Amino acid sequence: MANMTAKLVIAAALVATAGCAKKRPEVLPPAPEQATPTPTQPDYGNQNTVQPGSAQDFRQSVIGDTVHFGLDAYDIDSEARQILDSQAQWLMKYPNTRITIEGHTDERGTREYNLALGDRRATAAANYLIARGISASRINTISYGKERPVAMGSDEQAWAQNRRAVTVVIE
Amino acid sequence: MQTLLKRMALALAPIAALAGIQPASAQVEVDVVGGISAPMPIAVPAMPTSSPVNTAAGNTVELGKQLSQVITNDLKNSGLFRPLGPDLLRPVSFDQVTAPAFSYWNTTGAQSLVQGYVRANGDGTLTVGCYLYDVFAQNELTRQGFVVQPADWRRAAHKCADTVYTRLTGEGPYFDSRIVYISETGPKGRRIKRLAIMDQDGANHRFLTNGQSIVLTPRFTPNQQTIVYMSYENERPSIYAYDLNTGRSRRLVSSEHLAFAPHVSPDNRWVVFTMSTGGNADLYRVSMSGGTPQRLTSAPGIDTGGSFSPDGSQIVFESDRSGTQQIYVMNADGSNQHRISFGGGRYATPVWSPRGDLIAFTKITGNFRIGVMSPSGGGEKILTEGWGDEGPSWSPNGRVITFFRNARGAGNAEIWSVDLTGVNERHIPTPLGGSDPNWGPLRP
What we know:
The structure holds 2 protein chains of 2 kinds. In chain A, 38% of the residues lie in helices and 14% in strands. Chain A is an alpha+beta fold. In chain A, α4 (111-131) links the parallel β2 and β3 (139-145). Helix content of chain B is 9%, strand content 44%. Chain B contains 3 helices and 34 strands. In chain B, β20 and β21 (290-295) form a beta hairpin. In chain B, α1 packs across α3. The chains are: A alpha+beta, B mainly beta. The A-B interface holds A 4, 7-8, 12, 15, 74, 107-113, 115-117, 119-120, 123-124, 127, 142-144, 147-150, 152-154 and B 187-191, 193, 214, 216-217, 230, 234-235, 237, 258, 260-261, 274, 276, 278-279, 281, 302, 304-305, 318, 320, 325, 348-349, 362, 364, 368, 388, 390-391, 406, 408-410, 435-436.
């Protein structure tokens, strides 16, 4: 329904970069809202400007776009809470934005079970944001099970990275 | 790109069925508990032709040799035979097809002999004759004939191999059948997945989807008109039905919720599947024509992997309601849910044997392995020793199980098969990587 192409591009970019996601300090202050009218053409000369409320702004503003889970678990731990709190703050600031939360698993479960487990994780992250005051109507969830790992190895470290829920701003 | 299946009018009809009445002196010893005692030596010389004719499938001389090669491969792949194929045997004249030179065949060490012929008919079809002889007793055991379109010549060979296999083992036929699976290529994090179909020996391979959307877990309807599967089309993962006659797909479950794990009922009317709402996955069923799904389970936790018993009265599924994935059986309406697996480890992806006497599953105890148990939970037996063996599916006769073998690290998954006795583990070759194989019924 929403702009699928854009969403797919974002998803692809995330997959490409999510492995090196690190904690960033919050950017402050936010750029003034509606600073510039939307140009009719992309402004290639001004690439460093991050559009407030954009997916890029989200990734730069929050502690992380990804929360991780224990083996076969979907509970939101204290580290995940901090990350989701920062996401909730940003979402409060930009009430017209919508997000998709992607749930993922490691490869040590069967395919169909993992689809359900990925859904549990995406739902757990979504429920946390809803409890923080974000409207459920702004949140879409999707489970990829074990189909889209970010770490390609078959070891504990890779599996821990792959047990995740990733928040993507829909553009 | 997408090849549409133009279904030929069903042109594979037996023209003669004269079952041998002789006592079976040549009989393969099949021991389901312990394994295969010794593969039976069997001779499969090239099939002669009444007259060399060029057909759409090649010259009938060459075709006779290819038919025998397909039969040889089928019998060899079963693990129950040690065939001598056309490359190792002297040619047979057309006259000898019904009058074998038993004195010669005795010297080859073969206990049985498969002879036949190929003939191009005036209407463009082919006739393939198939004769099975007992070399020791020097008599005919059975004969069959098949009329096929040239494009279906391999099916005639599979039917002949099925005739031989059935007569000598007492098992049901399975060579004339297909496998639908997921073809996989590309890096592990962005793997391109396509629906693909092939004969059980890997021949006649075709891609059915173009790889734009992730597709998973295809399963034949028993009438083989349709393949139900999961697709991420429009990033709204749900269950779709691919029509093998038209090459078109339609969405089967219209709900916004995540729907997956489809299996079709034996009467082709229902699809049991899993839908996850609010993080809670339960089994539902929906009519093959669509409509509103009916809920079958409601336990908290993940209920998935539902598959019908051959008579359609029961459904086997997996649930983690006890804390770990275990196998449960219930009536097809959702009543009388009870757990049947109690061994150590987790159990997943249960599928009922077409014979009804066994349930195959993935067992997770660190490694993933394929196993079987009875529908009441007894007699558990582990068949494979892989690192990541997953997703069993039964051959039409309930004798062989296909599954996929995940690779450690970034490698491709592969399609494998194993005999019910745990022997004869075999890689089924596919053009790219492969997963989620589903073995279709015997073709009509």
